[in-house]
Amino acid sequence: MFKALSVREPQPACADVEALSETPVETLLELIDKAQQPPWVGMRAASCLIQGHADAVQDTLVDWVQQEDSRGFAILVLNQIDTLPQPVAIAVATQALAGPYASDATSRIAKSTNPALLALVP
Amino acid sequence: MRWSASPALLLVLTTACWPFGKKHLDLDTGPAACEQILGSETTTLSTTGDTARMNFAVPYATRSFLVSARSNTGGTIYLTELEDPDGNDPLDIDGWVSQTTYLTSAVLPFGDETAFNWPVRDIDPAPPYGYWSLAFSVLDSNGSPQEGVNVDVTIHLNQDFNTDSGCLSVRVLMTPDVAEDPELVAAIESAVGVWQDIYAGADIQLQPIYETAQGMDTTLSHPSSGSDAYLALKEAGDDEELVLVIGESIDGTNNGILGEAGAIPGALAPSTRGVVAIAWLMHAGSDGVLDDTDIQGLGETMAHEMGHYLGLFHPVELDGSGNPSGYSDALDDTPMCSTSTGCTASLGTNLMFPYRTCTDSACERQDDLTEQQRAVMQRYSGTR
Q: Which of B6, B67, B335, B355 has the most CB atoms less than 10 A away?
């Protein structure tokens, strides 16, 4: 999976990447934790989790918008906030607007088409 | 409708004094811009039968020419014929269409614009002077030839006969949010420095001109799909200046793209695909900060994608598991390989290798270029 995600181009499809593991969520989380280089391996793994497994990793997504050293992941999840299941989106947005990336969160959530998210923006 | 240079024009063009003249641009940013040695002509053709055909004059001592063409109906356009003054097809178009090696995407139907540079490699002869002819076909959405379609064609001629070294002017355009972040701008300028060093290894002096892409959203669209916004960016500069635009990401729904070139090779004339796009966030990783290691990777991506724009293909195409898919570039000195491990061993440090070669914590530099890859870059008509 590391090899597949490290390709420069074309971008691998999440379905193809995840097919390489019997436990894709766990493997993606492990890559996020351990693969430091190239930087896009972790970012692509995070994007696959956001796109396909947000319910299962809700706590992780919330952590990303709260931790001091995860602005890259935070921007990823905030950019895709309209694709998240509603409970996950609300949890992420609420914590993001109160976290270290409040400015990033405000500008991105303000572009949402979800009234429930827009209502959270101060 | 046919277009051709008159004998009088050909006579003028074949004199030692290039009629388009030379000029030096005075810029506030960085060193002097590259010398302007390109001339160009633009015309509109119409397809008759299933092709749009034209003749054009190549003056004495022309190093290379680049044809940019666009069908104004949105039909898919591709090069079907090329004939030199002696009536020969120096490209052997039919041969390239059927091969598993890539020399130029111009012979394949990809979209409503195409670009073709000649010569491509060091083994391809410099174009003899005289009247050349070429033809395009335009296909509709069903793959059938379209008749009576207008095709806008611009031909750039390069008369800098030095193919051992060159100069490349690139407008580095940052989306407004990027341009307003001093730390990000500094990191991008450092990455351009990495790119400059890589191209210096090919004896190409890269001259960046930094600007803001006013009004452009930080989520960039795919250059290979074309956009009016990219057309406007290209039109805002001289044809000779290539365009690299940097935003946060490419394709907001598909965030993992690092960079993309509009075409292989890319056009010099204004084009909806006339840019290289780079996504900075993917290079920054989880912390969203471009450190020195990230900057090296970002600079390599800039050099890699612009390499495509100059006409370079991946030395080998690999599948999702890293194994060769059976397609490769048309260069003799990029090693052939048959396994994932073998390809990484022989090509892993090559700038145009499609995978970044890393362990979990460190990556090898990917900045090698073979002699023939350098020759392709030198022969791109925008390299002066």
A: B67
